[in-house]
Amino acid sequence: MDREREFAQYVNALAQTLGHADRVGPLGDYCRGLMLSGERKSVEPMAALVAPRRASAKHQSLHHFVAKAEWSDAALLSSVRREVLPALGAIEAWIVDDTGYPKKGTHSVGVARQYCGQLGKQDHCQVAVSVSVANERGSLPIDYRLYLPREWAEDSARRRKAEVPASVGFATKTALALEQLRRARAAQVPSGVVLADAGYGNDADFRDGIHRLGLTYAVGIQGRTTVWADGHEPLPPRGHWGRGRPGTHLRRDRKHQPIDVKGLAHELPGRAWRRVQWREGSAGSLTSRFARVRVRAAHRNEPRAEEWLVIEWPLGETEPTKYWLSTLPASIAFKELVRLIKLRWRIERDYQELKQELGLDHYEGRNWRGFHHHATLTIAAYGFLMRARLSGRAKKNRALRVADVPLRRPPRPKNFIPRGSPRAA
Predict the structure, then answer these.
(1) How far apart are alpha carbons 185 and 179 in whole angstroms?
(2) N or C: where does the chain have the smaller number of CB atoms within 10 Å of the terminal CB?
(3) What is the mean pLDDT of the chain?
(4) 219 φψ region: left (φ > 0), alpha (ψ -120 to 50), beta (else)
């Protein structure tokens, strides 16, 4: 099957969720525009790419489709899953993360001064939380939601102008991520170990929420997180003395105190450390030095189950660089434990390809619906490219690129001048 026929079938399968037959064309045009080579993947430049002879009319059509049309992001993402996951194969991980989009001005929905990972500092930006399913072969975002800062959630005028739904209130990023995991669980998405960085994993309520969903996790924590370990055990709960209920909380005194994981790393003997290789990267084998210890988190003095504490301390470094807590089985092999933890690199690849190749961060509209529709359509285009790569129609040895799965570009009229070009001024 040639790529054009395959793309048409993919679009038709997704379009079943859109509610109207007249949305099939805009869906295909928008995804095609995202996958054609171009500097900007906002609506106007894409309209000129897919319909250069009638760019103005196509611009209006695509703008209405992405910013105004009432179709369900969740339903379309569900269709993308159905089309792509069979090619992806057995799921090993659900990866939680967030990504930022630097923005000028303050009118676009959710823009506030906050930490932006893309810039590595605080600045005006939008931030979205997502969940991807992944294995070593590939990955696919399955849920995506804008984080609405409290200053936006409580500002009725700005909410109304940006068309934020009344049902959307303030929620922390960890709360958004847990809700996404619940939706994935309810949709019976094939489960995997939940991976997240310390921005999520350091929240004990987030870890508990994952456990209540019946999922395992391997999440980053900060060095100051405290645990109970050998040589640092708590006192047992108070016994029953014939009056009142027996105690349920662990106790501390001067000799019975938890230890932070950074301090524990310094206490470990040399034999606890192993050099582990977890993946072949583009520049060679990825290896580092790790230790693992069975511990109990020392949160609120509540009795907690044992789990793995994994510490990375590369040779040549004066301090450990990363720490994780994991509820993966006690019997898991050390190398497999490290490999699964490190599988989180896939979401970094997701964001890189979604932004650089498909223009995830190029949307120029300001309203809630348009922000999410553009992200959903970008993920739909990404799903098509991912499926093509996994099925052998694109090179697998490098990052996903739109040039690997070229689609037909409509011919431009002679002497064509794109809208917005300095020559058209």
Answers:
(1) 10
(2) C
(3) 89
(4) beta
From 342, 363, 381, give the residue that closes a domain.
342
Domain that holds residue 151: 3-194+348-424
Distance CA 181, CA 27 (A): 27
Tokens standing for residue 417: 């001048």
* Strand ranges inside 216-312, DSSP E: 217-221, 226-228, 259-260, 274-281, 284-297, 307-312
CA 365 to chain CA centroid, Å, is 22
Which amino acid, 61?
S
Picking from 342, 358, 390, the residue at the C-terminal end of a domain is 342
Q: Is the pLDDT of residue 397 over 50?
A: no
Q: 221-231 as b/e, with b when 16 or more CB fall inside 10 Å?
A: bebebbbbbee
- The count of domains in the chain is 2
Q: Find, among 216, 225, 217, 214, the residue nearest to 258 by Cα.
A: 225
pLDDT digits (tens, 9 = 90+) for 311-327: 999 999 999 999 999 99
The verdict on residue 241 lying in a domain is: no
Q: What is the pTM of this model?
A: 0.89
Is residue 409 domain-shared with residue 274, that is, in the same domain?
Answer: no
Both 107 and 229 in a single domain?
Answer: no
In a domain, 398, yes or no: yes
Distance CA 12, CA 236 (A): 62
Closest CA to 388 of 21, 83, 65, 54: 83
Q: Are residues 288 and 409 in the same domain?
A: no
368 membership: H or E segment, kind and range = helix 368-390
Q: Which residues pair with 288 in a beta bridge?
A: 276
